[in-house]
Amino acid sequence: MDSAAGATRRALAEIRRSEPRVLAWTRIESDLAMSQATAIDRDGASGPPLPLAGLTVGIKDIVDVAGMPTRAGFAPFDDRLATEDSAVAAGLRAAGATIIGKTTTTQFAVADPTVTRNPWNLERTPAGSSSGSAAAVAARHIDLAIGSQTAGSTLRPAAFCGVVGFKPSFGWISRTGMIPLADTLDTVGLMARSVADIALMFDALADTSLESVGSCEPLPPARIGIWSDAAQLAEPEVRALVDSALTRAIEAGAIVDEARPPAPYRDLLAVHHITMLADVAASHEKLFQRHPDAYGSRVRAFVETGMTIPGHTYVRAQMLRREFREKALADWSSFDVVALPTAETPAPGLETTGSPSLQAVVTLFGLPSISLPAGLSPDGLPVGLQLVSTTMLGNAHLLRIARWMEGLLEPLPSTPAGIAD
Q1: Residue 80: which of 63, 92, 93 has the closest Cα?
Q2: Across the strands, what pairs with 58?
Q3: In the chain, count of helices (H) and strands (E)?
């Protein structure tokens, strides 16, 4: 692995080259990053190597980094300076990663688009809410990035930007120091350009008493389940690339079969929607009352609608959530993973962040899921293959299978077309 100082110099040079077009960052700490990197190299010369030394990272601007503002796309937070590291930032530092700065987020990680552009086509969205994190990794500004996922805010940006996105099991990575959106859904998300780097990050940040990935050697799955009623929501060009990826898995020895859906997909989405709306209202009611005019239209709609949901409706949704999750775990127990497209379409235009429909249900269940680049659409836009663990204790197993699947897929061009000189 390269020296931390060398990696940081290259990262900053790449940022200078394409950031004026990509607009992935809210804050870049060049001097501080070089100082961190120099200290990492110095300490590494006299001690054991750190797992993330030589890797650069960007952190979504809803997560605190000491000495940097955490704005969350919200004007009243412009002067909100973090005095302490979040658990995530502290874990990354301890593992030797060099923090470059803060990446853009949709306001409070909902759906009002940011200024960030997709490096594959600057007129397309990088998705949201972890817009800058995905775009910065795709543009080779950084090796690693921190996002979050409440519906589809890590996996969809990863799919649209052609990188690897991982949503661990709910609760496996601490959210301390992260601005909340929906308490029963919010999950720290990880992005990188390889599964191996995702595994390194997960081991550095996750509660190791629950699970550790270790060396993340590729593991061929015995059986892959296809979630067909979900996949049918995707456009034909997306399904074609996902089907091609699964054909490669079959040719490599995996058995692929239908996975029984735990409920009609529209019912699953309804439960997620009710849960998220009510949770958002609970998190933001007081702040919204103080600064109603500072809220974007989509976040405002979430808060105002969530306030109207009766308590009995929310409780009923949670009963169904538990019932559907238990049925999924029982019905999928014979599969190593369940597969479906990550998103319904390739990246649409800048007026939207895309649909979370194919990511939200897995977030509702709290299961680990990962998006791998499955290829490019006829328009030259990345498409994602989503793999879902069939157990809450399946992070390491999922990452090993994902690494095997990654080896079957054609790598994307090293420089996205939108920023190629």
Answers
A1: 63
A2: 101, 145
A3: 13, 11
Regarding beta strands 164-167 and 187-192, do their DSSP bridges make them parallel or antiparallel, or are they unpaired? Answer: antiparallel
Sign of CA dihedral 211, 214, 218, 220: negative
Q: Please name the amino acid found at residue 217.
A: E
Name residue 304's amino acid: E
DSSP classification of residue 75: G
Going through 291-412 in order, the beta strands assigned E by DSSP cover 337-341, 369-376, 382-389
CA nearest to 189, candidates 24, 21, 63: 63
| Region of poorest pLDDT, from 43-47, 85-89, 104-108, 348-352 | 43-47
Query: What order do you get walking across the sheet with 56-60 strand by strand?
Result: 25-28, 98-103, 56-60, 144-149, 187-192, 164-167, 369-376, 382-389, 337-341, 223-226, 255-258
pTM for the full predicted model: 0.98
What is the arithmetic mean of pLDDT over 44-55? 92
Look at the alpha carbons of 40, 44, 47, 50 in this order and tell me if their dihedral is positive or negative.
Answer: positive
> Which residues are known to be catalytic?
60, 129, 153
